[in-house]
Amino acid sequence: MIKGLQDTTTLHNGVKMPRLGIGVFKVEQGPELVHAVKFAIKHGYRSIDTAAIYENEESVGQAIREGLDEAGISREELFVTSKVWNSDLGYESTINAYETSLKKLGLDYLDLYLIHWPVQGKYKEAWRALETLYKQGKVKAIGVSNFQVHHLEDLMKDAEIKPMVNQVEYHPRLTQKEVHAFCQEHGIQLEAWSPLMQGQLLDNPVLQEIANTYNKTIAQIIIRWDLQNGVVTIPKSTKEHRIVENASVFDFELTKEDMWRIGQLNQNYRVGPDPDNFDF
């Protein structure tokens, strides 16, 4: 039973990663973002996910500094993730991109650094850079994002270190069974972005029926489904009541039947780009 907001999963290198965090995709720099991240930290969130391409690392960094002071906790209690963008993939350019992200965030290290997309012909050199950063102790864990099974197999043929995390689009309409099974087999933690399908699932009748049974919202049902499937999840919100709601998923457990019913909603439908047909 997953007991609380600060529960963690242990990555294959021994690093502990919170099972639930907050994402900041498409949230612009500025006071709204700073307030949201600070509020999340105050409420007990310990994982924050950003990326270079979001162009909001400065505000996330400001929120972390102010949030740590206000919550009275140390940097070591937070798990901060960022990602290298496609235009920076390459050995030296990836290392430079990492240093740029650190500077923007105002941090000494990241807990997790990811290759954002599997750009063919480029991700292996970028991975070599991530391995270097990891060996130098500049990042606690390294991983990938949006990698399909064949990308992972290709990467791992030459890699010294296998990815610790694969962050993918994951929700009841896109259950990524093959990717999930491969990651489980190889000890790679699956992490969900867009777990609520950018709001498109919030009027689904099957999910509404299940939500009514537990006296929960559809968002809470989906987040709980992620967690019970062993998938780390990072729903995005800038609204205080949503941040609280998304974390109120530890006082109930979905039955096996309801877990199965939610999984049956899969249509292999993406709201984001297809990693195999993404115009980079």
From TrEMBL:
Keywords: Oxidoreductase. Residues 20-266 form the NADP-dependent oxidoreductase domain. The active site is at residue 54. The keyword Ribosomal protein does not apply. CDD domains: AKR_AKR5G1-3. Substrate binds at residue 116. It holds the Pfam family Aldo_ket_red. InterPro entries: AKR, AKR5G, Aldo/ket_reductase_CS, NAD(P)_OxRdtase_dom_sf, NADP_OxRdtase_dom. The record marks 83 as: Lowers pKa of active site Tyr. SUPFAM superfamilies: NAD(P)-linked oxidoreductase (SSF51430). This is Diketogulonate reductase-like aldo/keto reductase. It comes from Bacillus oleivorans.
